[in-house]
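=== Structure Prediction Worksheet ===
Name of assembly: unnamed complex
Input type: mixed (protein and possibly other molecules)
Chain count: two
Listed entries:
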Amino acid sequence: MKKKISKLPFRGTAEQEAQLKKVIDELKHDKSNLMVVMQKAQDIYGYLPFEVQEMISEGMEVPLEKIYGVATFYAQFSLSPKGKYNISVCLGTACYVKGSGPIFEKLSEKLGIGADECTADGKFSLNACRCIGACGLAPVMTVNDEVYGRLTVDDIDTILEKYKD
Amino acid sequence: MDMINVKINGIAVSVPKGSTILEAARKAGVEIPTLCFMKEKNEIGACRICVVEANEGRGFRIVTSCVYPVSEGMEVLTNSEKIQKARKTTLELILSTHDKKCLSCSRSTNCELQKLCRDYGVEDSAFEGFKPHYELDYSTPHLVRDNNKCILCRRCVAACREQYVSVIGANDRGIDTNIGQAFNLSLNNTPCISCGQCTVVCPTGALTERDDTDKIWAALADPTKKVIVQTAPSVRATLGECFGMPIGTNVEGKMAAALRRMGFHKVFDTDFSADLTIVEEANELVERIKNGGVLPMITSCSPGWVKFCEFYYPDLLSHLSTCKSPQQMMGAVIKTYWAEKNGVDPKDIVSVSVMPCTAKKFEIGRDDQSTAGVPDVDIAITTRELGRMIERAGIDFVNLPDEEFDNPLSEDTGAAVIFGATGGVMEAAVRTANAWLNGATTAIDLEAVRGTKGLKEATVNVAGTDLKLAVASGAAAAKYVMDQLKAGNPNGWGFIEIMGCPGGCVNGGGQPIQPQHVRDTVDLKAVRAKVLYDQDKNMPLRMSHESPAIKMIYSEWFDGFGGPKAHHALHTSYTPRKKYRRD
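=== Predicted Assembly ===
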């Protein structure tokens, strides 16, 4: 699937930029460090928007297109910001046959966003993931580090209620 | 050197250790088809058209010959039944995501994919399935990207990388893999320098020059317009290739004849304005040296190079000569001098140029290129487009008689002819400087700046001082030169020629397309450049300032060298450009 490019405005801070600059300065002597820089940039910003990739491009002296090519090739890189609460629904085999598909759809409908998207208020992001190793609890989803298992569609409202603020 | 002995289809051949099967086969005179392979530029073994059967003592196995190294005693079969079937299946898989619109494709009959499909008797709908659809990218004035014809060979990506531009690359993965720009920006919003090298290496019609020929047909059909054409120095060295003539054939006379038969009112030679460029540029250089201007001065004939400088070295734009390119100077002269002499309103002139170059399509729309209040040049087409126009006009090009260009705006010197090859502008400038400042009466041959190397250097003595020269062709060499300038110009260069395309205009992005196996085995740059140097050798006048037309225009029209009238018509300005725009 093609990577989704977020249309949400970039909200990077001066502090984040300083952190990224430091990372680039430490690693720019060797262009093969590009992946590491991209990983660290994603740790700092949560995703790799245009502004961040441009900073990496200028700093590492690597063409922007090359960075974008790498970012869209590897599943680990995201072009969409993570929400304050990042929801991952497992669509691996076990969870899927146990009904995680409708759960994902319900979340998508409630939040008004699709896979790899973030709500405009920055609160929730939604991902479809593969097996997280909790097949015994299928179907499962996680909200940040919290795991919710043996879900039904009716559980969704109650769970979202917990993350009101 | 360690040599390895192998047998290709039973033919014994000995090649250096580390050679690939493809190299060994080429040495044995056996052609193996390739698609993604570009010698030394794109050796990625991706398309698998070059598969062969190789036996290294453990039976025959299928391997990709473009990357598989030979080993002692290896036996290779390049065209067995098994291999033919494998290639056919590969082609059918490639076609499963191809739009197969050959009838309307400008690359039809000159498409490497089409030829292979024909050679291997491919079923065009063997695999029906998911077919991605891509919008065409018409955002730039110089080229069109049609990913529906793309086979993901990445030759364009390699060409763009060679130019140190890298605005196109492979994005996403699996069935979604596509060649495109970062963040799916349109090409016009990236720092593409319009050089068109990607269009020359594309095996299919996924990357083509923007076709402007219909505008010319419309103008030719309009009785109120005077349609005037100019042809660049290097076009005469390559146009014949469009009609199957051998690479390196000079078709100057046939080209003039063809253009006249197509109905152009006047057929002028850009050679005239190449001489004009030299005289203006030499004058500018002398002024800069005398008045403490910015040095080294860098030539500005190549719009791809100029755009490269504006994107990547905006701080160094003051080094660029303010001289317009020969195309634009000719346009300015046609719409001022020629228009007045012939009592024609510049608005009624349609000025057409035939160029080796896609960036010329961009250049005609630049700011500060409208001397008479209307654009100096209205339509710029490539050598390839002219080839198609001549075919459409039903002209038997190969059997045309030779004709002359129209005067006076075609009189030229040998110095102008060699503009089309890397080093030519420098040599032309040195000839004039040598005459003006050292009193030389014959043209010198500046061998040090000839040849196809990316960077060439020379020193000439001008009026008692040594002037160090550098000549760069290809944006990669340009980058090296500019980085040297950033580092304080340690080589002490005083005058620099830069061309955007490797080898200069003879290898420009608008030149006829030769299949990659020809590009890999024939030095196109050298063979085409030889046409120009041969012509120069035999010309009576070989220094730009000797041209009677140049003498005439400065005395009759421009009130001497470097005057305000010449400055208005023949000079321009540059602007820093932002690399990526997201509007």
